[in-house]
Structure prediction request, 352 residues.
Amino acid sequence: MTKRFGGFRAVDDVTLEIGEGEFFSLLGPSGCGKTTCLRMMAGFEQPDSGAVRLGSRDVTGTPANRRPVNLVFQSYELFPHMTVFDNVAFGLKIKRVGRTEIEARVTRTLESVTAAHLAARYPRELSGGQQQRIALARALVNEPGVLLLDEPLSALDVKLRKQMQQELKQIQHRLGTTFVYVTHDQEEAFVMSDRIAVMNEGRILQVAVPREIYERPATRFVADFVGSLNVFPFRMDERAAGLATMLVEDGQRIVAKLDASGRAATHLGVRPERIRVQLAETAEASATRLVGVVESIDYFGTSTRLQVATAAVGVVVCESANTGTAVPEQGERVSLTWDLDAAFGLPPEDAR
Ligand code: ATP
Prediction:
């Protein structure tokens, strides 16, 4: 699909294939085109070129209300003057579904989102999380083939948001409905999704399972967007047995795997939490080894982040879980090492 607004390409030649029953997320910064993609899937927006297919059916020209698809918005938009039950029943009444069937479907749906006990309440009598569940029930009661969710948890506080992430995931697993979920929060996408598409500037940069997105990001943008990252320029001084070595002063070195075609990357990415920090005097021997001085220490409760100044590659950010073992102090000389698998090759710069 491609979608322009005036001369601006909000969605630029995006191709996605989403599996039946999958929890699929579109992840990217504000304005990257996620919502526009979702609205084209829903039928609220028409692509300028391209098509939307559902199974073997081309639904590109089909209006939103005729697609077996429902969209859950960021703002829940519950009807304030109706009870929870009537809010959920509303769409079925419009479709002239019989009363006994409405009763059964609404009850079943409210049970599936653990909100049966709220049926008689009005929206103003509900917490944010409860309102969110009702908004979800209102979409699910239509038994859509695909449920589209646009940042549905963004109005909730952090604790509730985490709880709702788990609940949404469980509901999705239980019902087996295909979920397409839009978020700019990488942790949310990681926790919930089977697969993630990372977007920027209207384009898809990578589609993969969460672990691959994090550990083998396709571009620098992806690597950076989903976590913090050290990037080192890499120079191959020696090669042997599928490995490239960059020699630095005093026996320090960085060892990296060659890629499938036997080439060394021009840049390496290493996540801060994959770097082991030990006092320089007592450090164990290892293939990759850099030496530096601790410049700053940030304590985060579950982890501690160190900035280590090295002569070889500048400042390296390291993050270690707080497991009760001693953390080096500011000004101390430390040795940095990481496993071969912790480093991934990156292009010199992203094309866009
Ligand atoms: P957010 O996370 O902020 O919602 P998003 O990734 O969902 O962002 P979109 O809402 O898809 O982004 O918007 C993509 C781009 O298209 C933005 O630059 C936006 O300003 C522009 N855009 C979206 N809808 C319209 C419209 N109806 N008219 C003009 N420009 C639009």
The helical segments are 34-42, 84-94, 99-112, 128-140, 158-175, 186-192, 210-215, 220-225. Residues 5, 10, 28, 30-36, 184 surround adenosine-5'-triphosphate (CB under 6 Å). The chain is about 25% helix and 30% strand.
